[in-house]
Amino acid sequence: MMMMSGHSKWSKIKRAKGSNDAKRAILFTKLAVELTEASRQAKGDTSDIRLAAAISKAKANNVPKDNIEGAIKRGVEGKGSTNMEAVTYEGIGPGSTAIIIEALTDNRKRTAPNVRHAFSKNGGTLGSSGSVAWMFVRRGLVEIPEEGREKGRGEEALLDDALEAGAEDVEGDPEEEWEEGEDEPRVTRVYCEPGALAGVRKGLEERGWRPSLVQFAYVPTTWVEVEVEEEEGKEREKGKVAVVSPGQQLLTLLEALEEDPDVQNVFHNARLI
User: Fold this and answer.
1) How far does CA 202 lie from the centroid of its chain?
2) What count of other Cβ atoms lies within 10 Å of the Cβ of residue 104?
3) Using 50, 70 and 90 to split pLDDT, how confident is the model at 154?
4) How far apart are CA 235 and CA 241, in angstroms?
5) How far apart are CA 62 and CA 176, in angstroms?
6) Calculated CA dihedral for residues 100, 15, 4, 183, nearest 10 degrees
7) Cβ burial 29-59 (10 Å sphere, 16+ → b, else e)
């Protein structure tokens, strides 16, 4: 059954993006690694859904066209590390939030301690495989921005076309949660089974929709509300350590994970309030 969600929980999940040159350099580097590895496995075939998703993600993060084409070429030519492997980590963050991290690494002995340190330093705990995965479902995700719609066609038309293309659910950003001028563009998200992602993307494009992002995602089935703003009296000196809200700790943890060069994606079930 397909439904148009009336309240976009996903809109509260904002992954940290490079806000300065150093962060942007890290982001571009990890996206290039992901592109090269996907291209190597797909032999440069851009119709391969994993490579198409990597290209979509790079474009969504404003990676220059020359950088994208160069990374794809390196993959076709077999350049770059040939020992890359995809690794998934799970953990509990501040406020009892569940977090899943997807990494691409050539050295697990480097990546695992770094991820563990990020959790322990910021009020979280790295768990074992399966510890929080049961709170998520693996889905294909296609994001359609407002500028990716044909003139005069709204969410009802997108809902109909997504259903015909094989999608399962469509969710839009509510009016009350989005304001003109926000850094994040207003988007509608189309969800499907992972194996249907290529077909859904193609079906939407054939019907005139222009996706800004195509990727595989872990979508929460349960949510945890976490306060971001400090409440009066919550932040206080306890010895020499300031006590901050779980929401602030969570944001710091997510930023630390996003800045790790081996981390490709971070998913969590927090609704930031």
Assistant:
1) 21
2) 21
3) confident
4) 10
5) 27
6) 180
7) ebbbbbbbbbbbebeeeeebbbbbbbbbbbb
Predicted pLDDT of residue 146: 79
The average pLDDT across 128-155 equals 86
Task: Report the SS3 class of residue 60.
Answer: helix
Alpha-carbon distance 74 to 261, whole Å? 19
Parallel, antiparallel, or unpaired: how do β-strands 241-242 and 97-105 relate? unpaired
Q: How far is Cα 253 from Cα 72, in angstroms, rounded to an integer?
A: 31
**Residues 99-115 pLDDT 10s:** 999 999 999 999 999 99
Long-range contacts (CB closer than 8 Å, 24 or more residues apart) made by 80-85: 80/33, 80/36, 80/37, 80/40, 81/106, 82/40, 84/33, 84/37
Model pLDDT for residues 76-98, shown as the tens digit of each residue = 988 766 678 899 999 999 999 99
Which tokens go with 212? 């800004």
Q: Can you give the pLDDT at residue 250?
A: 94
Residue 4: name the closest of 168, 119, 132 by CA: 168
> CA neighbours within 13 Å on the CB side: how many for 240?
0
pLDDT at position 232 over 50 = no
